[in-house]
Amino acid sequence: MHDVYAQNVHFLGFRRHLDKAIHNAEEDVRRACDALRAYESVDSGFDDLVKEFTALQAEVENKRWALRELNIHREENTSLLAAGNG
């Protein structure tokens, strides 16, 4: 009889552990679904802003490249002028 009682207590403890794990997993799923709904509710205008931002980033990078190239050529020309005057 004692063994049966001990087994029942053990199983009840295990059942509580499983119930808590299931509850926690369900809460995680609920939070993930809420987050997905929040992202889905973002207006399509956001996509347009992302595209515009990406285009602006590319334009800035192109302009930086052009400035680097101009600076290189300016330095080369300055060196040539200095060598010609010296």
Give a written overview of the molecule.
This protein is mostly helical. It folds into two domains: 41 residues; 44 residues. 94% of the residues lie in helices and 0% in strands. The protein is built from two helices and no strands. The longest helix has 42 residues. It is elongated and about 110 Å long. The model has no long low-confidence stretch (mean pLDDT 86).
Q: Approximately how much helix is present in the residues?
A: over 70%
Strand content: under 5%
Rounded mean pLDDT is: 86
Uncertain residue segments: none
Number of helices: 2
Query: Radius of gyration, Cα only, in angstroms?
Result: 34 Å
Q: What would you call the shape? A: elongated
Spell out the blueprint of helices and strands:
Blueprint: H1 2-40, H2 44-85
Summarize the structure.
By secondary structure, the chain is an all-alpha fold. The chain has helices spanning 2-40, 44-85. The termini are far apart.
Kindly list the characteristics that best describe this protein.
86 residues; mainly alpha; 2 domains; 2 helices; 94% helix; 0% strand; elongated
